[in-house]
From TrEMBL:
Cellular localisation: Cytoplasm; Nucleus
Superkingdom field: Eukaryota
Protein encoded by which gene: LOC113715106
Chief localisation class: cytoplasm
Keyword ATP-binding found: no
Any single Pfam family the record assigns to this protein: BRE
Family named by the database record: Belongs to the BABAM2 family.
Organism: Coffea arabica (Arabian coffee)
Protein name (database record): BRISC and BRCA1-A complex member 2
GO cellular component, one term: cytoplasm
Keywords recorded for this protein, A-Z: Apoptosis, Cell cycle, Cell division, Chromatin regulator, Cytoplasm, DNA damage, DNA repair, Mitosis, Nucleus, Repeat, Ubl conjugation pathway
Keyword rRNA-binding recorded: no
Gene Ontology biological process terms in this record: cell division; chromatin organization; double-strand break repair
Amino acid sequence: MVSDRIPPLISTQLTHLLAHCPISIKVEQMWSGCMNSSLLDHFTLVIPFCLEYVRWDIIYNAIYPLAKPDVIFGPEDEHFRPYRGTIDSKNALTDWNSKDPTRLLTLVLELRDYQKKRVAEVDDERLKFEISTMLSREGIEMLMSSGLDKPEEVKFAVPLLDMDLNKMVLGSTWRHQQKIYLQVIYPVGRKYSTTPSAPRLKLVSSPELKSWFSVEESRLPAWLDGMCMAEYLPTLEEMLENQIREAVALVEVRRKFITALAPHFGRPIEADPVFCRKVSFLASSGTFAFLVHISIPLQFPKQQPVLVLQSSQHFNSHNVPIKSPIMNDYPWSPRWETSVMAERIFDFLVEECLNFKRYCNETMLQQR
């Protein structure tokens, strides 16, 4: 929500930017830069770019709200001068109209586009070649980064896989389109090398995707000498496609495991019906009632589930139910049938719940 201390003309533009920008921009801070300190006319925008964030300060003048704003770029954009040498050309600032609510949005998007032009003008033969081989790909972002103590480098964010990941898992409630990107970082060189070094590579995904597929667990293919991105990307995408198909199959494997637990623990009181990552049961040993929480890893059954017990009768000094430490030292083999896995977990907890009851009683005594 935009503060009511911002002058109306400025507030209208900022509100329009936050509501209609195709990328998720946030306001990090606001402050006053004029004689009337009750008015806010300076603010810092946090702008996603190449899978990272840049910070730009937008400087208005609350006393003269009709004046066009200044923009101060962050340290990584120290040499970014988008309108230098274009005095006579039309841009978002020369065409400024403070009464038009869309002007700030137009300015921010235009400045982002200038970053791509800036990269294309870099005097580096290798980078020019790499850019030429990737122009046919849609959605690529490019960013030039430099600083006082940092060498110049170019960052690319390359969207991967021509498939709708949202439709890969039945019942998923993702509100936004899930994506996987490759971040590529090249140092800027002035001379062409016959054996250029490999760029820095990193897989990045939408945060929500991690509940089903973790790119952190994907090992990138080796970058061979003399390779370019046009050669590397097909190999990477083929690897990811295979891993995603496996991730789809593993959802059903986890679902079968949860089903196999029911004959021993009864009907779950809570379960993850989409990704099948968590399930909880109400259990008892004599008069001692407790919950069994089972967290199932993405790499199940290679990795065994994690167990936590939670008492229904014992609470700590903050009135929070007492829980056991995480348990994963029980008998396990990924080669067992799911029915055997469920049976071994049940047998383990038959004994372990007695230890947990003693732990709860001792904790209660220490609190007195």
